[in-house]
Amino acid sequence: MKTYGLIGFPLEHSASADYFNAKFKAEGLNAEYKPFAIESLKDLSDILKQNPSLRGFNVTSPHKENILNHLSYIDPEAKLIGAVNVVKIKRGFLGRKEFWGYNTDYLAFEETIRNLDLPPFQKALILGSGGASKAVERSFKRLGIACDVVSRTPQGAQKSYHDITPEVLTSYTIIVNATPLGMQPYIDKAPEIPYHALSDNQLCYDLIYNPEKTEFLKQAEARGARIKNGLEMLILQANEAWEIWRRS
């Protein structure tokens, strides 16, 4: 039996195992998908030793950026983004294991934005500056949508949360939560922005899908904003990951 999995921490919120195991069963595949909750990538070697049938794995927070240091090959788009969410395990010279990294987050997010059929001249604000944020930023660039990134520790052109005044917030038509605030163990939290300034002219998109409606989305909906969670993105990026794993 071939094994696939997910590394990250925490993983209680993740639906990846349920999704893939249902997919494998429906397609009659002799495969399984397992969650590997690891706080440090130092524990990755133990996962590999304990699971010799592992053929690939997804990567989620907080490892999407640091995993790059553990890879044999990084897809050019993933290297440009600076984050990887899919790893394929291949056999190289003399059967030695190689770890190839890819990013399917940006493709999935980009498709979900296209599916929304938004009017032209959009401007986006991304809350958070981690691996997921970098993929979203790449998607917006490919779509020709101007965007800014907000970080607790801003670098370069990034903004701080103190910069996001009500007047500034109203200048954006898309606001994306790419932070872990809203999922376990931060389920009652949301990024600190002036929610009272939101309106029905804006789309608030949370990459989190569990819970279905985060505090960020509840606050946005209460102000009349259009809302969307990350479930569609999860499914799209998972399907892209499977296409990578199944290729020889």
Automatic annotation (TrEMBL):
Alphabetized UniProt keyword annotations: Amino-acid biosynthesis, Aromatic amino acid biosynthesis, Oxidoreductase
Amino-acid biosynthesis keyword on record: yes
Official protein name in the record: Shikimate dehydrogenase
PANTHER family: BIFUNCTIONAL 3-DEHYDROQUINATE DEHYDRATASE_SHIKIMATE DEHYDROGENASE, CHLOROPLASTIC, SHIKIMATE DEHYDROGENASE
Molecular function per GO: NADP binding; shikimate 3-dehydrogenase (NADP+) activity
E.C. number(s) listed in UniProt: 1.1.1.25
Boundaries of every Shikimate dehydrogenase substrate binding N-terminal domain copy: 6-87
SUPFAM superfamilies: Aminoacid dehydrogenase-like, N-terminal domain, NAD(P)-binding Rossmann-fold domains
Pfam families: Shikimate_dh_N
Domain of life: Bacteria
Pathways involved: Metabolic intermediate biosynthesis; chorismate biosynthesis; chorismate from D-erythrose 4-phosphate and phosphoenolpyruvate: step 4/7
Enzyme class: oxidoreductase
GO biological process: aromatic amino acid family biosynthetic process; chorismate biosynthetic process; shikimate metabolic process
InterPro entries, per database record: Aminoacid_DH-like_N_sf (IPR046346), NAD(P)-bd_dom_sf (IPR036291), Shikimate_DH-bd_N (IPR013708), Shikimate_DH_fam (IPR022893)
Organism: Porphyromonas macacae
